[in-house]
Design goal:
- The protein is α/β, with parallel strands linked by helices.
- The chain folds into three domains: about 180 residues, 3-Layer(aba) Sandwich (Rossmann fold), CATH 3.40.50.880; about 190 residues, Rossmann fold; about 100 residues, GMP Synthetase, Chain A, domain 3, CATH 3.30.300.10.
- It is built from 15 helices and 18 strands.
- The radius of gyration is 27 Å and the shape is globular.
- It binds xanthosine-5'-monophosphate.
- Xanthosine-5'-monophosphate binds next to loops.
């Protein structure tokens, strides 16, 4: 394992992604993790990330001094380099001008970190402080016009540092530098593979669960599906999955989930048809936050009732993935996600522990595990779908009739996007039933029916998004089909708002 000590830099996750892409397993730990924990993990290398603080400020985050004395190679990046400097007796100073953006640097190719690279290259800089005096035993291995120490090293002690960000795409040779560190300097094998992850995870789960019983709340989303399959591989029939169908799923979705888990994988699968309960609790409620809250609460209630019927449960499976763990900080991460997963509230049933087999994986790795375990592509590459389901896409009060209209319109939209071969290019696309009715004309008749909105976005992180440039002829086919085939709709509009200021969902 390679450890990444996180000083709060915005690129910490990106560093981890890059290391994993090189087939080297890594974990992100808080900067102040104890030295015992580090020793216990027996890392092949340690990376110190960037961070917003400045080392000279009182209260600046420091790692344990012994990190530099373990004989394990260390790579300091940005703040990590300044920290290394100060902690080992060097100095940093405030530059007159912040160095930000693409910057030409001159490398010393005799450094093992820059092995095989040309002297001149472009790097990504973002710093105000710089190393003004090297710690003893160090030498300069890169410079830029404004930064006399753009990289430094003490190869005898296996300590390396760069002021720029090798993990960012703009650092043209950044990946090579990281690989030089991982393979050349740390001696990593680069053999971390999804298949070995599965073997280890299955072995772990088996050892932990022994003869105990395990319960999983399956949503049909990627994370809970893959988590359930892994646990099933490990403990077979001792796993039971509860799938609460709240009646707010897309067309055919519940049947599809049942078919995959019950019939194809032969998993103990309990499908609870709770549509009536959810709809009656939602009757008359138009406020989006109230709707979400009701659905969350009802979900827990239904899940608990079903779980109690099963008798004693020892473990609960959670589909927590790595970004959830990192985003919610350390320590209480699991709790935060379990709330989120089951709709915003803690489950009130007793169990011995939580099993989170995907806790250390990124989303694309979770998908790879799913594929390897034979999960069908329709679930593996499924777009995100909100927990409260179509209830937040029927604006205002949710009724059975409105859900039916939306389901049909949404189905047509998805079908046409698929037919046009666009589904891989658009990150998320769906229909919304606006509560608005407008006047139309059909044949010789006046109509007064609903407006359906189409939403389609392109995004990598779902934090910001562009609206998808769907060709007009595709939009036209969707619109024509919806007004012709879906009773109750006489107008279709396309949402051309970015996020921000809009969100992806309408509620
Ligand atoms: P917004 O609408 O906030 O959505 O731009 C960002 C992404 O999150 C999804 N989303 C949810 N996912 N539970 C979830 O698991 C929810 O309550 C929820 N609400 C929104 C949304 O579909 C989009 O991908």
């Amino acid at each position: 394992v390679v450890l990444i000590l996180d000083f709060g830099g915005q690129y910490s996750q990106l560093i981890a992604r890059r290391v994993r892409e090189a087939s080297v397993y890594c974990e992100i730990l808080p900067f102040d993790v104890s030295i015992d924990r580090i020793k216990c993990l027996n890392p092949k290398g340690i990376i110190l990330t960037g961070g917003p603080a400045s080392v000279t400020e009182p209260g600046a985050p420091f790692c344990h001094q012994e990190v530099f004395e373990l004989g394990v190679p260390v790579l300091g990046i940005c703040y990590g380099m300044q920290l290394m400097s100060v902690m080992l007796g060097g100095e940093v100073a405030r530059a007159e001008q912040r160095e930000y953006g693409k910057t030409e640097v001159t490398l010393d190719p005799s450094s093992q970190l820059f092995y095989g690279l040309e002297e001149q290259t472009v790097s990504w800089m973002s710093h105000t402080y710089y190393v003004s005096k090297l710690p003893e035993g160090f030498r300069v291995t890169a410079r830029s016009a404004n930064c006399p120490v753009a990289a430094m090293e003490n190869p005898q002690k296996k300590l390396y540092a760069v002021q720029f960000h090798p993990e960012v795409e703009h650092t043209v040779k950044g990946k090579e530098m990281l690989k030089n560190f991982l393979f050349g300097i740390c001696g990593c094998a680069g053999d971390w593979k999804i298949s070995s992850f599965i073997e280890d995870a299955v072995e772990d789960i088996r050892r932990r669960v022994e003869d105990a019983s395990v319960l999983c709340a399956l949503s049909g989303g990627v994370d809970s599906s893959v988590a359930a399959l892994l646990v099933h591989k490990a403990v077979g029939d001792r796993l039971t999955c509860i799938f609460v169908d709240h009646g707010l799923l897309r067309k055919n979705e519940a049947d599809q989930v049942e078919n995959v888990f019950k019939n194809r994988f032969n998993i103990n699968f309990i499908r609870v048809d709770a549509a009536d309960r959810f709809l009656s609790r939602l009757a008359g409620v138009a406020d989006p936050e109230k709707k979400r809250k009701i659905i969350g609460e009802e979900f827990i209630r239904v899940f608990e009732e079903e779980a109690r019927k099963l008798g004693k449960i020892d473990y609960l499976v959670q589909g927590t993935i790595y970004p959830d763990v990192i985003e919610s900080g350390t320590g209480n991460a699991a709790v935060i996600k379990s709330h989120h997963n089951v709709g915003g509230l803690p489950v009130d049933i007793e169990f011995k522990g939580i099993i989170e087999p995907l806790r250390n994986l990124f989303k694309d790795e979770v998908r790879k595990v799913g594929r390897e375990l034979g999960l069908p592509e329709e679930i593996v590459s499924r777009q995100p779908f909100p927990g409260p389901g179509l209830a937040v896409r029927v604006l205002g009060e949710v009724t059975r009739e409105k859900l039916e209209i939306l389901r049909e319109a949404d189905h047509i939209f998805r079908e046409e996007i698929d037919k046009a071969g666009l589904s891989k290019d658009i990150s998320q696309y769906f229909a919304i039933l606006t509560g608005m009715k407008t006047v139309g004309v059909m044949g010789d008749e006046r109509t007064y029916d609903y407006v359906v909105a189409l939403r389609a976005v392109v995004t990598t992180d779902f934090m910001t998004a562009h609206w998808a440039r769907i060709p007009y002829d595709v939009l036209e086919r969707v619109s024509t089909r919806i007004v012709n085939e879906v009773k109750g709709v006489n107008r279709v509009v396309y949402d051309i708002t970015t996020k921000p200021p809009a969100t992806i969902e309408w509620e």
